[in-house]
């Protein structure tokens, strides 16, 4: 890979680092393309059981690089402006879908500011562990736009109507500590401890039965689209399927024998 994305796999944990620190890891076409390629690797690698996404330097991600050719304003001398919807559909929407539909848990190690689509990407992850120096900014309204990449979807489900409107319309900074108090993120860490804490959490998740992890993630993420009787039926079907797996037998045996389970994902 080139310098815009760093990717490494240590045992069963993949770490993806957004790497344009001089631009606060804001996205251009190159970084979008390379992240798509990395996500494809994550999806196809059965040895990867958990994913960490973080940023290089002092920021996590400032969203879209407004100087990038994919979103740059056409200018007064040109009659047709750029189609921002096309950029969202080509790059951001597929990324958010990939994170939310991935059958492996995704942890955001939020090392600094997450602004615009950077905040959206963080919130799409299953867990957010934030440095106490980190913050969220929904900066869309300030440049005449609306929250995209599912920011409005995730925010309102975590924070409710009043707080979501305030953050989206005012664009005020939300500190990591306040985000934790409001239930938006999972944990706050000291900056020097952030990746260590993220890897510790990833290790816990990677040791669990991967089929059960994937099914539980799907069950929770899809619950907003169902009424209770539909959710009950989905739970029944998943219990039926998982009850026939090796991992269930191993899990019961490990529990009875008071030892860690050795799960195979089958």
Task: Please give a handful of descriptors for the protein shown.
single chain; 266 residues; alpha/beta; 2-enoyl-CoA Hydratase, Chain A, domain 1; Lyase 2-enoyl-coa Hydratase, Chain  A, domain 2; 2 domains; six-stranded mixed beta sheet; four-stranded mixed beta sheet; 10 helices; 10 strands
Note the beta-strand portion.
Answer: 15-25%
Cα distance, first to last residue? 32 Å
- Rg, Å, rounded: 20 Å
- In the predicted model, the low-confidence regions spanning at least 5 consecutive residues are none
User: Which descriptor suits the 3D outline?
Assistant: globular
Order of helices and strands: EEHEEHEEHEEHHEHEHHHH
Strand order of the largest sheet: 1-2-3-5-7-10
Largest β-sheet summary: 6 strands, mixed
Q: Give the CATH topology of the largest domain.
A: 2-enoyl-CoA Hydratase, Chain A, domain 1
Q: Please, what is the CATH homologous superfamily of the largest domain? A: 2-enoyl-CoA Hydratase, Chain A, domain 1
Helix content: 40-55%
Return the structural class. Answer: alpha/beta
- Per CATH, which architecture of the largest domain? Alpha-Beta Complex
Number of strands: 10
Whole-number average pLDDT?
Answer: 94
Number of helices: 10
Q: How many domain modules?
A: 2
The CATH class assignment of the largest domain is Alpha Beta
Question: Can you give me a brief rundown of this structure?
Answer:
By secondary structure, this protein is α/β, with parallel strands linked by helices. 45% of the residues lie in helices and 16% in strands. The chain has two domains: 202 residues, 2-enoyl-CoA Hydratase, Chain A, domain 1, CATH 3.90.226.10; 48 residues, Lyase 2-enoyl-coa Hydratase, Chain  A, domain 2 (Orthogonal Bundle).
